[in-house]
Amino acid sequence: MPRGRLVIARTWPSALARLAAVAVSAAAATCAVVETVRIQRAPRLPESARGLDMVVPPGRAGASDHDFDDPGALEPLSLVAIGDSVVSGVGCSAPERSVPAVLATLVAQRLNHPVRVRCLGRTGARAEEVRAEQGPRLAELDHVDLVVASVGANDAAHLTPPGRFTRALRALCAEARAATGAPVLLTGVPEFRSARAVGWPLRLLVWLVGWPVHERQRRIATELDGVGFIDVLAEVGPEFRRDPQLMAEDGYHPSDRGAARLAEAIAPSLVSLMGEDIGLAEPRTA
């Protein structure tokens, strides 16, 4: 009899955990039906930066003291953005206002070196889709100095199993490194609690699902050589929750101001990584 009670004591917490998981899943599914209708009524915004390919000239604002005799003759540093709507410019009024374009501008200014930026991102893309659709395109590019990847938001929103997401992202990073020889910088997931297009409690539930996705990116960056992680959520998340002007009119994607703020948070890491390619120490003056 004591042994039987011991078995029950050991299995009871796991049974409660399973019941809790079922309850959360049911609640999420119920909320999702209601919120899907709400989100579908939100304005559909175009991808202003999809297919972006532009060269940003060198600038002086915030640049290092390194001087060039003929900046126009310099070979541009090559930045490639892959992933989801954060890089494809949904919510931004023009391509040059998108996260990739602003990033390139900031890097060009701080290093006083031209930067070519290309965007392969697509709205709605999950990790497996980024790997299958955008990953192979990296191998077709002539030269890449750094890859920025915004992945995970759609996996969180669609409840991709954590193991499945991790395998896809790990493979994407390894294949991107093999194809380009360039570092890969992961940016984590956005601040879902600022997505006013999604009502409570689904907004909180998606954030709870998104947090493990965010942390798995951090872990992958520590495990794979040449893969970095910038915690954009920690850098600007509180600002997005406080200031509705950082969100676009659809209440789900960053506005021009929001994209600029995201780029400002990511830029120091890019300046450090890309500056190494031209023999410059990271200025970090901003």
Describe this structure in words.
This protein is of the alpha/beta class and 286 residues long. The protein folds into 2 domains: 1-41; 46-278, Rossmann fold (3-Layer(aba) Sandwich), CATH 3.40.50.1110. It contains 9 helices and 6 strands; from the N terminus they run H-E-E-H-H-E-H-E-H-H-E-H-E-H-H. It has helices at residues 2-41, 85-88, 99-111, 127-138, 153-157, 162-180, 202-223, 232-242, 256-275, and strands at 53-56, 77-83, 115-119, 146-150, 184-186, 227-229. Helix 3 (99-111) crosses helix 9 (256-275), helix 6 (162-180) crosses helix 7 (202-223) and helix 8 runs antiparallel to helix 9. 45% of the residues are buried. Mean pLDDT is 82; it is low at 1-17, 19-23, 29-40, 61-69 and 281-286.
The share of residues in extended strands comes to: 5-15%
Radius of gyration from the alpha-carbon trace, in angstroms: 21 Å
What do the pLDDT scores average to?
82
Please indicate the count of domains: 2
CATH architecture of the largest domain: 3-Layer(aba) Sandwich
Structural class: alpha/beta
Order of helices and strands: HEEHHEHEHHEHEHH
Secondary structure tally: strands: 6
> Terminal Cα separation, in Å?
69 Å
User: Briefly, what CATH class of the largest domain?
Assistant: Alpha Beta
Tell me, briefly, the overall form.
globular
Number of helices: 9
Q: In this structure, how is the largest beta sheet organized?
A: 6 strands, mixed
Query: What is the CATH superfamily label of the largest domain?
Result: SGNH hydrolase
